[in-house]
């Protein structure tokens, strides 16, 4: 009797936080770090930025899997990206400690938004040859989005030759309010090292949480991976954390 191996999730991220979150889905997963370019053209909305970068990360890993003929048992590649937006200013990861100080100084006592994108691509699907419809990294796609309450949405953006979803993209948005912070508190936080590899220069799951007054939206999206959005997406690829093994 042949044994059917379960599908695998490939996480296109080196983030320990995303790896921790993906493991909670109770599905087999591996990590292949994406080397995708993370620059974007001007004029994109925050939602378009995170969706485009999420897809770019996932597709870069997908191309490697195709070239290496890996994961023939099937599965999906998950790419994700997070940005912090204060007014009209997008805050990515700080360049150095001084940059982190400037970001945190601008966030203290204010309300900002966190956008997290997610892109899921069927492993071994080369969109250039097999997908029907527009490429995922075109933000003007006209696919009807599926809404996830008030926090997020996703849409199928490419189909396989058999008409099944080949690529799905989406995003969530959460609203965060910081309490006032003194310069001394900001520098003390920076000196812990926690802010230096995080969008907006803070970590909601770490000691930076002491500065957060209120969160409206999804905690895990702010942490880096929208599990409540990822769940209905992986279901469309025939994967479920509740399936028997």
Describe the SSE topology:
Elements: E1 8-11, H1 16-23, E2 29-31, H2 46-68, E3 75-86, E4 89-91, H3 97-107, E5 111-122, H4 127-130, E6 146-148, E7 152-159, E8 165-178, H5 183-190, E9 212-216, H6 219-223, H7 227-236
Parallel strand pairs: 1-2, 1-3
Antiparallel strand pairs: 3-4, 3-5, 5-8, 6-7, 7-8, 8-9
Helix pairs in contact: 3-5
Describe the structure in brief.
28% of the residues lie in helices and 26% in strands. It is of the alpha+beta class and 245 residues long. Residues 1-5 and 127-142 have low confidence and may be disordered.
Key features?
single chain; 245 residues; alpha+beta; Maf protein; 9-stranded mixed sheet; 7 helices; 28% helix; 26% strand; elongated; disordered N terminus
Count of domain modules: 1
CATH-defined topology? Maf protein
Oligomeric description of these chains: single chain
Low-confidence stretches: 1-5, 127-142
Label the CATH architecture: Alpha-Beta Complex
Give the distance, in angstroms, between the N- and C-terminal Cα atoms: 16 Å
Largest sheet: 9 strands, mixed
Considering DSSP H and I runs of 4 or more, what fraction of the residues is helical?
25-40%
Structural class: alpha+beta
- Average pLDDT reading: 86
Instruction: Report the sheet-strand fraction.
Output: 25-35%
Give the SSE order as H and E letters: EHEHEEHEHEEEHEHH
Shape: elongated
What's the tally of helices? Answer: 7
CATH class descriptor name: Alpha Beta
What's the number of extended β-strand segments?
A: 9
- Rg over CA atoms, rounded to whole Å, is 18 Å
